[in-house]
Design goal:
Elements: H1 3-23, H2 29-40, H3 44-57, H4 64-76
Helix pairs in contact: 1-2, 1-3, 1-4, 2-3
């Protein structure tokens, strides 16, 4: 993959992961800051996994749109769909 492709992907991940995180009600500010720090350092896989862990640990519910975005982002960061298993239905 060319450098420009990576830069484009990083831009998409930064925007969409950040937007998703902000749309989830009940996410503590300290966790948002931690996830944002990973995003700012292009550690999207770690940010995504921390988001999943936080949602799961706090038993937060996602709406259908958020669940679809989680599945799409998982594919963009090359994580298997099973990574979403801890999320409540």
């Amino acid at each position: 993959m060319a450098t420009t492709d990576f830069l484009a992907l990083w831009g998409i991940l930064e925007e969409r992961l950040g937007s998703l995180m902000m749309s989830i009600a009940g996410l503590p500010d300290i966790r948002r800051e931690s996830i944002r720090d990973y995003i700012d350092h292009n550690e999207f896989g770690i940010a995504f996994e921390e988001l999943i862990d936080t949602i799961s640990d706090m038993e937060l519910l996602l709406n259908q749109e958020q669940r679809q975005e989680m599945a799409h982002l998982a594919s963009l960061v090359a994580l298997p769909p099973s990574v979403l298993a801890p999320l409540k239905q």
